[in-house]
Amino acid sequence: QVQLVESGGGLVQPGGSMRLTCAYSEMSFNIYTMAWYRQAPGKQRELVASISSSGRPTIGDSVKGRFTISRDNAKKTVSLQMNSLKPVDPAVYYCNRPPVIVSWGQGTPITVSS
Question: Does position 1 have pLDDT exceeding 90, yes or no?
Answer without folding.
Answer: no
